[in-house]
Design goal:
With 480 residues, chain A is an alpha/beta fold. Chain A contains twelve helices and 24 strands. Chain A has a ten-stranded mixed sheet with strand order 4-3-7-9-12-14-17-20-22-24. Classes of the chains: A alpha/beta (480), B alpha/beta (405).
Chain lengths: 480, 405
Amino acid sequence: MVSENLVKNVVTEPYKYGFVTEIETEKISKGINEDTIRLISEKKEEPEFLLNFRLNAFKKWQKMKEPCWADLGYKEIDYQDIIYYSAPKQKEKISSLDEVDPKLLETFDKLGIPLTEQKKLTNVAVDAVFDSVSIATTFRKELAEHGVIFCSISEAVKDHSDLIKKYLGSVVPSNDNYFAALNSAVFSDGSFVYIPKGVKCPMDLSSYFRINSGDSGQFERTLIIAEESSSVSYLEGCTAPMFDTNTLHAAVVELIALDDASIKYSTVQNWYAGNEEGVGGIFNFVTKRGKCLGKRSKISWSQVETGSAITWKYPSCILLGEESVGEFYSVALTNNLQQADTGTKMIHIGPKTKSTIVSKGISAGNSVNSYRGLVKMGSKAIGSRNYSQCDSMLIGDQAAANTFPYIQSQQPNSEIEHEASTCRISEDQLFYLQSRGIEFEEAVSMMVSGFCRDVFNQLPMEFAAEADKLLALKLEGSVG
Amino acid sequence: MQIIEEIKKNELVKNPSEIQKICLEKLKLNPLPNIKSELWRHSNKSKFLSFLDYSHTKKESKVNFPYDNASQNVIRFTIGENSSINLKEENYSIRKLKDSEIFDYIKKNISDFDQTDHWSDLLNHCLSSKNNILGLNISGNKIPPIEILSASSYNSFNAKTLILFFEKNCEANLLQINLGDKNSSLCQSTYLCLEENTSVNHGVVSYGKNKSNLLNSLNVIQKAKSEYSLSSLHFKFNYARFEIRINQLDGDAETNIKGIQITKNEDQIATYTKMQFNGPNGILEQINKSLADDKSHSVFEGAIVVPKIAQKTDASQLSRNLLLSKHAKIDTKPQLEIIADDVKCKHGATISQLNKEELFYMRSRGLTLEEASKLQLSSYFQEIISCIPVSKDRWDLLDKLLKEA
């Protein structure tokens, strides 16, 4: 018999990104009202259309109610007790990385994100976001040679306002849901990517989100546009320091793929999850949605969710274009008192559209891990197909795993398949591995990694290694 | 809506019984179910209101079984017909429950019913008068098949309740028939209690006529080592809702659920099941099939709840759906809620159409498209219907009905 303590040891690992960077920041006062929004807009020197967009969203948000349908329990969020804008102080506009505060560079260094020139060997362009603002974007020149625009969304508002005007809010309208409306009103920064017609982005793009202050929320907004026949792979990572208060993170990500374009969006989310008693941690309420506008376009979401006290996240695909493809690969790990309600929506509108969903949930400790997904076949989705698979693994007898698939069809010429299963780390398998001389912890980690293999195979190289390591760390305890 | 108005104004029942009082009290504040809740959000509002549109009558026209009592020995009851029942044979006995037993049982049950989860039962108990409650205590084995008929009458709303206690070591075959008349609504609540070591094979056949509505609620409690098999068939209803709640009280029991629902024209039929495991070593095998044609809407929601105590549970649930028309709609949501870690639970769902290759094969052998489709459909039904405890001569009638449907 595996003793319960042993399993307990295996699933506890201190959060190693929990440090706070001591840096002078500029914060606005707590609370949200029209003036706050005007102030944020003014600080970012935004054009009028954007201010109106924000104000409109704020009006709608005020009339909305916080959704309560998800299987989550958390103490009420006081939206007036949050700082909606916080930025490290910078004297002037930065023209090169050398002028960035070395403390900031050090922070990202500590997180393993290479921003300085000598470390940029990995051929990944990075946009680093610290609290409410983007600090630096690397490889911009190289990307510009190919016509790829990769910058912070604040810069894009200034330099490419036509694109912002055309696409911002076109996938996730400002009144889409409570958190999207809040984000639309107060979003501070995020990444903007534009891949022109026929360009295959020469390197992976990546953004790294860091929450540093304990009382400010992070509201980033990402917009990716892939023109005809272009393709891009985008990676996203997140960490936050340990505070005993809860920090709100409400992001919106919009993807647009035109004819024959393909976007691959990968996330490794490792926000601070709170301590063992469930004190502190990030409330992660994220709206991510992609629109396959063009024919044969493809959007693929892959995510590894290991952090956050609360995760509320449903990366979705609207499959409009003929023969467009949507994919969703997810690993969600919850431990201690974490709660995750995550899944996807695949809305088939165009004919011959295809979607694949592979979701793996691992719940340990006293956590709750729910898969909630919608597959919808519209009446014009002739010849469309969906395949979903969601598997759950339970570690210990206190954790809960739930599956809520919603399946709707209005098109007889379409096929939907869904399957789900639940399992645990079997003692027979553990015994077998141990009898072959493999340590207990390693055996558990091997089995978890095998369980998640379908998803890890979909991650880009850099991330696959990181994700595997992350899961092993989260599960392996202090044993190396 | 007349019924709802009457509940609000406290005018629904003159001289209500104690049970009716409790239920009316529970419904008084919110007489209608919460349309936004998961259990009700798929309900078509206008259809649901048409279900409530008939006035509640106590007078009922006599309804006959849809087929003759043929050669085979069967025991028949019709809910609402007042007769004393006391059968004692060598191997078995069936006796009518005393009024006090029925009263105690219902009272005990409704105490923890809430308005959202048990709205159908609460409504049923508000309306169901003493005459319309049939309670039986069944024991022994080698019992001839039991058939119980419940029917609604033309242009009215009828509420009927059935309570069956199966004593220890009992083995029984039970067929429950719910008949809907033209322009009528039937609200049927059924309670089955299976003691240890019982084995019950339960068939539910519900079919209506033009514009009939049905609200069918089934509550089953299984004690250890009991075996319960349910096979159900619902068709020809303007609006029908079948709620199944099964509770394996101490685990270590076996449950089989097989159901099929057929919707045509503008029908809406919905099945909601909730399987609760409250002890270890429980087994569930469930398959629900549906077929939606024309402009109809078919709904299935199935929840499997496995708390920490229910280790070694083995549950599987499958929802298979055929969508035959581009104006029809299917919603399905199989659902798992698991805390126990040493369990095997799985579910699956598919929505598709008739298999083209099989159709082509049959047509290449000289069958017309219509014949080939019917053949394929009948094989689709067969898996479920063959489990309904119906004898051969009645089977033909069922087959005929299905062909008409």
